Automatic annotation (TrEMBL), chains A, B:
Native source species: Astatotilapia calliptera (Eastern happy)
Gene Ontology molecular-function annotations: glutamate decarboxylase activity; pyridoxal phosphate binding
Enzyme type, top EC level: lyase
UniProt-recorded name of the protein: Glutamate decarboxylase 1
Record-linked InterPro entries: PyrdxlP-dep_de-COase, PyrdxlP-dep_Trfase, PyrdxlP-dep_Trfase_major, Pyridoxal-P_BS
E.C. code: 4.1.1.15
Any Pfam family hit: Pyridoxal_deC
Catalytic activity from the UniProt record: L-glutamate + H(+) = 4-aminobutanoate + CO2
Modified residues (N6-(pyridoxal phosphate)lysine): 339
Function (record text): Catalyzes the synthesis of the inhibitory neurotransmitter gamma-aminobutyric acid (GABA) with pyridoxal 5'-phosphate as cofactor.
Length: 528, 528
């Protein structure tokens, strides 16, 4: 898993073999692998040292791809294509050679990203297909193609499948087995997890509604993300049936509290259904003890969801992944590459250990999209698993980044951010005027602290000091925004008054950025 | 509303005035308008005739914007910025002049889209903010910035508000009053509508779950989009409590059937809650009679939702908007600019007539995002209305297109597509070997037809002919994909065997494209 980059499939030309029915995923992977070996020396590699030479290789490879006839024009090419007599692009087999030879090389140099995007949506260039759907040449820049069936976006569908499998391997599920989908954000991924859990234990709710189930209760940390609460409201459980679990001083769920509350719920006749363990809470960056929570879930037959929206990225780091020990025991996992791994928003995956639940839970078998008599293996039509119809192509950004950075690159990214947050923590933990919100080095990059202006330092603990301290962070943030130098968030939490929460997810940050932040807080807050 | 382009606000420099608390939307609009007047001659206009001259104007205007210090670099500029000693970008007030003067003009020429995107997210360039969040320079191309609070993406938040208001005006709600949000697709927008309706009539479901409500039933056309069914499953109603309404021969809901089924449901003790009228069904492109359905909704106190995901675009056309007559009586409307209006996926709006319901339904008041003690008017923090947390910036593509094409441009786009579909209909309605699925000119661009190969033409109506005809469209589609010339979808519907459904949403299509399609179907299907 480590020490070697994971290369997702390289080029759509390798996908033609996928069209045969009855190829399983492994066979398809072999097709991809053999293509990869042939072209590994030519294509964009995760070796970042090549500089100009790497660009040249990339370009020459793109020329091959034109010759294979799978590519997409800039707007001037588009115009020349439209005015050419031979405008019969071919779905699934690409554009005619006669046309592609007219593409000026400069068209491809302008934007590597747009060029890459052009390689991946074979079907949109057929003549009547563009009549129906492809509307705007700007879409080549905006990467907004959609898919719900394999025929519409075959390469994206396969990219998603292979990448999700790799993510499941990293979670620790044997052979990466299971299921999953990319969703529009962690809140929706968490919502999926609750839906699937309900479908697993009470499938009749799909047809008969919540009235068909007993009173179901859900459990989550008092520090968990508010999306769990939103899901409990939206899906018809009701927020009162989401039971909040106490945490220790550092914001980690106390397993004994979970068990006590499960027992209490059962005593009242409720049915404990679902537990979220958070891997990286929003405010403290805390990691709940997954193994201990998993023991309780097994004992009481509850679904275990790990919300790793924020902390899931640490699975890529050999140094830090132990914080998620036990994640392989989860029934579902939310993991947002758009957070700690720096993939541009949005890119969130819901991973599910048991195959078929997503499909069973959400499928409605829309006749106009999902016809069983299509000429290819329709198990690749992933749309019916989703609560959406068309989806944004979130996989592509992630795939491209993984391609460019490699697994090791993500690991370095994450280790760097955690090193920086440790630097910040060590810098301020004993610094005059600063007070940490919780003791000890943060588990994630969240560093939570109060700045105490000189005027408050001599005040005794008590309501007056609390009230005045509560106003300090908002004032400093307002001054930051006015002076335009920096911005850092604050919030209260439980009985703790407003404190700063600095999170670091950009590995391009430096220690001098951190130094600047601390000095700026002191400068702006000194006279409060 | 018509005859004159709607210009969304032009430049972020006009937004500085928005920061004062207590400005209402109208005052903010005035600030935008006055800025617009000043700069209307310089900025990208909806006059598409300018050619090179227009580009030059645009560039010179961007130079002004650098001087104002609000812009974003290409990756080489980014590197030079990082290595410069004065790297203190200012949130909400932009970048320092000293830095912006170093941007080479060529950097901006490469991509207008990326340049425009750069103008709209003021806060991401502050020093510590980029430490926390901004990770990838590729994001400048990918337009993937996020927002849940005004301070993160002030311009996008305001763009969204102004554009939603304009859409509500076009729907016909007085002064564009009401609420709304962009969501990741029509399926989610429709899900919102059901959630909001439930919250309006049974707000206690939010806290107590579906157990707190009586047995609620929903009504929708048998031809409606499957997302309504997905919503009824996901939200805990159960698909059996979604009652399907009969349609006439052309796929439009029969109002009498609705009333009869409402009465029947009440007789059983159920509570009729929600009715969807579809404006543009997926397969037939039918428009339900909204006014007659609205009468029944008023009579029985039910929520009326208009699913205009596909047909909402016709509101932009003076010639065709009568098909949605009565839409102003809806409580909520789904309208996907990414469909008929050609905005790149995804761009879907849920519009709500009553203000406050979205917020009431979904807000969870997450302390870490939504602090009441912020220095600006926190009613601009729209995140708590959504079931998502961060959202993709879908508004920007739409705004940009509206800017470029104008309302009149959208109208022409839509009229052209409907003209083309009428051309297809007239071409095949009496053509040998073709048979229309329903009589009369389609209401939308959906043209539904069978191709009957010569071998079937003499067969009498009956099971054998049906069975053989059922296989014709899949076979022709498979041959299309094999030969790579074109692709058109098919599906069965009710008791009708597989038929082709051609939809046209790209106004760049021509009559010769349509001719080609028809000839290709004849060529491929002749010997079946």
């Amino acid at each position: 898993m480590f020490g070697k980059c994971f290369h997702p499939p390289d080029s759509p030309s390798s996908y033609l073999g996928f069209l045969q029915k009855n190829n399983n995923l492994e066979e398809r992977s072999r097709i991809v692998s053999s293509f990869k070996e042939r072209t590994a020396k030519n294509l964009l590699s995760c070796d970042n040292s090549g500089g100009e030479a790497r660009f040249r290789r990339t370009e020459s490879d793109f020329s091959n791809l034109y010759a294979r006839g799978r590519s997409q024009p800039c707007s001037s090419c588009w115009r020349s294509w439209k005015s050419s007599p031979a405008t019969s692009g071919r779905p699934l087999t690409g554009l005619p050679r006669s046309w592609t030879s007219t593409i000026p090389t400069s068209c491809w140099r302008a934007s590597r990203a747009s060029t890459w995007s052009s390689l991946t949506s074979l079907s949109l260039w057929s003549r009547s297909y563009r009549v129906s759907f492809t509307c705007s040449s700007s879409s080549s820049l905006l990467l907004v193609w959609f898919r719900f069936t394999y025929e519409i976006a075959p390469v994206f569908v396969l990219m998603e499948q292979l990448t999700l499998k790799k993510m499941r391997e990293i979670v620790g599920w044997p052979d990466g087995e299971g299921d999953g989908i990319f969703s529009p954000g962690g809140a929706i991924s968490n919502m999926y997890s609750v839906m699937i859990a309900r479908y697993k234990f009470f499938p009749e709710v799909k047809t008969k509604g919540m009235a068909a189930a007993p009173r179901l209760v859900l459990f989550t940390s008092e520090h968990s993300h508010y999306s769990i609460k939103k899901a409990s409201a939206a899906l018809g459980f009701g927020t009162e049936n989401l039971i909040l679990l106490n945490t220790d001083e550092r914001g980690r769920v106390i397993p004994d509290d979970l068990e006590a509350k499960v027992i209490e719920a059962k005593r009242k006749g409720y049915v404990p259904l679902f537990v979220t363990a958070t891997a990286g809470t929003t405010v403290y960056g805390a990691f709940d003890p997954i193994n201990e929570i998993a023991d309780i879930c097994e004992k009481y037959n509850m679904w275990l969801h790990v919300d790793g929206a924020w902390g899931g990225g640490l699975l890529m780091s050999r140094k830090h992944r132990h914080k998620l020990n036990g994640v392989e025991r989860a029934n579902s996992v939310t993991w947002n590459p758009h957070k700690m791994m720096g993939v541009p928003l949005q890119c969130s995956a819901i991973l599910v250990r048991e195959r078929g639940l997503l499909q069973g839970c959400n499928s409605m078998c829309a006749g106009y999209l999902f016809q069983p008599d299509k000429q290819y293996d329709v198990t690749y039509d992933t749309g019916d698993k989703a609560i959406q119809c068309g989806r944004h192509v979130d996989i592509f950004k992630f795939w491209l980044m993984w391609k460019a950075k490699g697994t090791v690159g993500f690991e370095q990214h994450i280790d760097k951010c955690l090193d920086l947050s440790a630097y910040l923590y060590n810098k301020i933990k004993n610094r005059e005027g600063f007070k940490m919100v919780f003791k000890g080095e943060p588990q994630h990059t969240n560093v939570c602290f109060w700045y105490i202006p000189p005027s408050l330092r001599s005040l005794p603990d008590g309501e007056e000091r609390r009230q005045r301290l509560h106003k300090v962070a908002p004032k400093i943030k307002a001054m930051m925004m006015e002076s335009g130098t920096t911005m850092v968030g604050y919030q209260p939490q439980g009985d703790k008054v407003n404190f700063f929460r600095m999170v670091i997810s950009n590995p391009a940050a430096t220690r001098s950025d951190i130094d600047f932040l601390v000095e700026e807080i002191e400068r702006l807050g000194h006279d409060l």
